[in-house]
Each structure stands twice: as C-alpha cells, then as structure tokens.
Amino acid sequence: MRLHKSVEREKIFKVCREFVGKIYQRPPLKSSVKRVVRIRTIYYIDILEIENRDVLMRVGCQAGTYIRKLCHDIGIILGTGAHMQELRRTRSGPFREDETLITLQDLRDAYEIWIEEKDETELRRTIQPVEKAVEHLPKIIIRDSAVDAICHGADLAIPGILRLENGIRRRTLIAIMTQKGELVALGEAKMTSEEILEADRGIAAKTIRVIMERGTYPRMWK
After folding, report:
1. Within this chain, do residues 114 and 181 fall inside the same structural domain, yes or no?
2. 182: which of 85, 110, 144, 178 fits an S-S bond (Cβ 3.0–4.6 Å)?
3. Looking at the domain assignment, is residue 201 inside a domain?
4. Sign of the Cα pseudo-torsion (159, 163, 167, 172, in order)
5. Is the dihedral of CA 105, 111, 112, 114 positive or negative?
6. Which segments of the chain are extended strands (E)?
7. CA distances from 127 to 30, 104, 133, 176 (A)
C-alpha cells in the first residue's frame, strides 16, 4: 500500500486494526461484478514493514475481498489517501505459495521431461491431485454402490454413507469421497454430523458439483 502523504507509524497500525473483522465494501469501478455494497471479513492485517510511504502488509481475507479497495479505504481513514501499489497472492484455500505453487516454466519443464525421457516424477510433483483442493473441507465417505449414482447427479442419501467427519453443519460445503480417498463430488450439507449419525433415511447432502467421471465405478442403481 502506498500512502499519498507521510503519516505516523502508530496511526497506521491503529487504523489497520480497525479494519479487522466484518467490513462493508463496494467493488471498484474496474471490477467484474455488480457494484453493490457487500460484507466481507478481514481475518488479520499484519504490517511487515513500513518504508517512507510504502506499507508492506499481509492480509488474510474472505474470498471476494478487493484489496485495492481496502487500501483505498484505509487511506481515507488515515486522512492521507492511499492506493494498492502491488499485490501478491501467497495463499488460496489449501494452496500455499511456498508449498504447492509452481511456475508455468516448471510445468513446461516437467512436461518436456515426461515426453522426452518418459519420466513422470517431476510431472507428478508439479500437478497436484484434485483431492488436494478439498483438504480443508469436511468429508463424507460413501459406499462403492452409491458412487455412480452421485456421478449422475443424485443427492446423497443416508443409506449410501459409510462414515463421516465430525463438525459438519447445515448448508456448509462438503466433499463426498470414496473409500479409497477419491473425490466424487462437492455437496451442500442438509444435516449436521449428529443428525446424519442418528438418521436412517433422508438426504444428507445435495450434490452441487460432480467431479468424478460417470462409469468410473460400476452402476448399481436402477
């Protein structure tokens, strides 16, 4: 964030703390969404360094937060004006810059090694399995007999569930998995973990996005 005028360090820290929590944001003029006021959550703002009018900070925020608008609004409260000078995304969901992210050149090199030397070691290192994307989601493991039905868009019924993780709440996003740990689909929970364990019938989750290809598991439904 670049400030338009110099300001005391203590004031910068104080104002940034005021933006932690739920904030109101109207998307900027140059945005791909409708410009209506939205509520977004800022989980933390860590100021790492201040040099002259440049403020280097790490922000943890809810998806859909406009950082350039956050910088602009901080500048207004400081009374100096401010804009976003540079943005670098270091994490998105379970993906972290220093653990899982690679460059396009790394991917191209891994592909060329696979083509020329038939060695897929680097390719497997650079391309993450789809299951990596749902590590942070609560999971429901289903019976093999229910997999193909889910792949055809059926909602997840209680009889198809083998086991599940604790902490599932209604209307939360969940991952529907096979016994082998394969991602079948994403769903919206219609019951809590406790309700699922106590029920013997009903819909536990609505299928909202099928990931596994149809026919991967044998069809065992009519």
Report:
1. no
2. 178
3. yes
4. negative
5. positive
6. 2-3, 21-25, 38-51, 54-61, 82-83, 91-92, 95-96, 139-142, 156-157, 161-164, 173-177, 183-189, 203-210
7. 33, 11, 12, 22
Do 84 and 13 fall within a single domain?
yes
For residue 99, pLDDT beyond 90 = no
Q: In angstroms, how far is the first alpha carbon of the chain from the final one? A: 59
Name 12's Cβ contacts closer than 8 Å, sequence gap at least 6: 3, 47, 50, 55, 78
Return the SS3 of 204. Answer: strand
- What SS3 class is residue 203? strand
Which tokens in the block code for residue 201?
Answer: 């019938």
Task: Look at residue 33 in the predicted model and tell me its pLDDT.
Answer: 67
Give the rounded distance of the alpha carbon of 35 from its chain centre: 23
**CATH number for the domain harbouring residue 147:** 2.30.130.10
Q: Which amino acid is at 161?
A: I
Is beta strand 21-25 parallel, antiparallel or unpaired with respect to 91-92?
Answer: unpaired
What are φ and ψ of residue 136, in 5° steps?
A: -85, -5
Report if residue 219 sits inside a domain: no
Domain that holds residue 196: 131-210
Cα angle: 35, vertex 65, 139; to 5 degrees: 120
Q: Which of 139, 143, 136 is nearest to 157 (CA)?
A: 143
121 shares its domain with 147: no
> What 3-state DSSP class applies to 76?
helix
